[in-house]
Amino acid sequence: MALATQLSRLAHGAAGLALLVASATWSPSANAAQPHNATATGGTGFNSNSTKPFPSTLTTTYTVTGANLQIVANNAPLTTLGGATSAMFTPTLPTTTTSIQLQTVGASCQFANGAATTAACPNIGTLTVSFNRPVTNPILHFVGLGSVQTVVGDTVTITASRPVHTIASSVPAGATMTLLGGAVNLQTLSAGTSLDLVNTTYNGTSCSTITAPATQLAGCGSVRINGTVTSVTFNVGMSGRRTNFNPTIGTGLGDDGYLITTTVDEDFGDAPASYDLVEAASHILDGIRLGASVDADNTNVLNTTPAVTPSPNAVAAGGDNNAGGDGADEDGLTTPLTTLHTGLIGQAYTLSPSLSGSTAAGTVCGWIDFNRNNVFETAEGVCNAVASGATTTTLSWTVPIATTAGRSYVRLRATQGTQLTTATPTGRVDSGEVEDYMIEIKPAVRVIKLLNPTGATGRFDLGIGGTAFALAAGHNGTTNFRTLYHNSASGAPDLTVAQNITNTAITTTVSEVPTPATTALYVSTYACVNGSGATVATGTGTSVNITLPISVPGAAANGRAQAVTCTFTNRVASSALSIIKTESPVRTTYTPGGSTTYTIQACNAAGADPANGAAIADTLPPGATLSAQWGCTGTGGATCSAANGGTIGNNLISLTAATLPAGGCLNISVPTVFSSNPADY
Length: 681
Known about the structure:
The structure is a single chain. Strands 1, 3, 5, 6, 9, 11, 12, 14, 15 and 17 form a ten-stranded antiparallel β-sheet that branches. Strands 2, 4, 7, 8, 10, 13, 16 and 18 form an eight-stranded antiparallel β-sheet that branches. A six-stranded mixed β-sheet has the order 34-33-30-39-36-37, with no helix packed on it. The chain is mostly beta strands. Residues about 1-30 have low confidence and may be disordered. It is rod-shaped, with a radius of gyration of 45 Å. Helices cover about 0% and strands about 45% of the residues.
């Protein structure tokens, strides 16, 4: 009696060379992050479901309906059926990866009659692949689509069958499939809504080896579900072909066993490796994005257990990831970032990332490594809840005392749901995107102008390092904090210096210069303090050199010492001037044609402010003129301006006090002659 033999992957298929069907198409942008864990919950059989978790908290549930499609096992390695090899999948999957094993009932699909050579049944049941939260572009991996049966001793009868998967619906609607690289004997049809074999003539049970009586390979490979979906439902059909009718086999197609598993794409940051030492920050793509774009990272490196660390995109320690990292999708913020400097310690610093694609309420968190210890710490994080559909949020930090100048990094993470807190700068989450940015915390110097009295008209140009940053500043005028840094990689500093403050102290000059219109005399003093209130310099004068110390990272971060404020106080000079004119000998009458000498004494009283530049002038009465040049001597530290002593025959005495300190006097001797002509009087 002849016996029917059905080869339907009830045992492991022989491993062999993976064949790439020439007509298969694939997308080079498809990458992977997480496959299923080797665990599952749920049942087997008809109208059953099985749930498989990922290393993160994402889960996929596989549900079958109908009396002709069942779950046979929910934890089957990819080697269980079909002769699959890792190279058949995108990404390359270890053949130990676990999957759901399904079985179709071929008897549900019949050849129309004994003469018929093909059969097609478009719907023998449904398979729904659903996720516990939305996922962008999940990838389904199929193994062993196809079977063949024959009759022992009958060399001419071959009956082959295969399942055909057609998308019936998705949430949201409109999902399609794209075939990915490495697939064997698979193709998508009907604008990506149907998955079938390429060569359907007597396809066998193995994707790697053709074993007679089969003449074609089974189907193995990966398809990406395009879009952000919560579930995809397939109508599972059966199609088959036979050489001729044999009553032992009958008119029904043979059963077919096949496997399905899922991987999901992830996004990683690109900060240096020290920021992800235990577990790299990664996000399963699901729609919400920082900025307008996100890409899938970690191509062909599966994020299983233990987790990937550091990020596969990490730049070298101290590297500029704004320019040299995974910058293609870092568009939540515009670079260079808003300037962060040591003068902001104790004040607010804000960043306002843009968002897109969210379909549910979520969370956005950010961390700044203020103390530059190469770790994102909980205390350095802030988080905001965001509503569904949010397009922006504002993260605001109070810049901590533990801040120091130099190159550092910012991390942003966005997710739908509440998975993120300030305590999660690293680790896997099931939603969103992570973006890292380089930032350079700059030291800062500020100059403030005070006038006494406050209404004084004096105006001064305030400068740092030889550059005037405030012109004609009056009372309460200021340069504001001005940054000093050695490069412009994170935005041009206000003043470019040669020294890198992370290894060399910065010394600079702060100064004030009176504007040309300022003629009043002022007493100038300065007082410089750093951000912790410690005095850096005090004295009298209009300029002073200050030093910003080398950065100290970590708990001893010294950013407050790298923020210095110098205040110049200009008090209107208060002199006590007196002037006395005497003659020796004293006369009460004057003789025309006669002469005399008188003295002008100009003094500044003890305890007064210096009266340097004080002007002294006297005009002789009619009939009196200089008989010789006048002379000037100083006492008590006073000095006269350079002068020619006047012109003989002239009647004007005019000079200034080059210096006239408190207690100083100028003594001016004036030789005078009286006209002999009475009409001159």
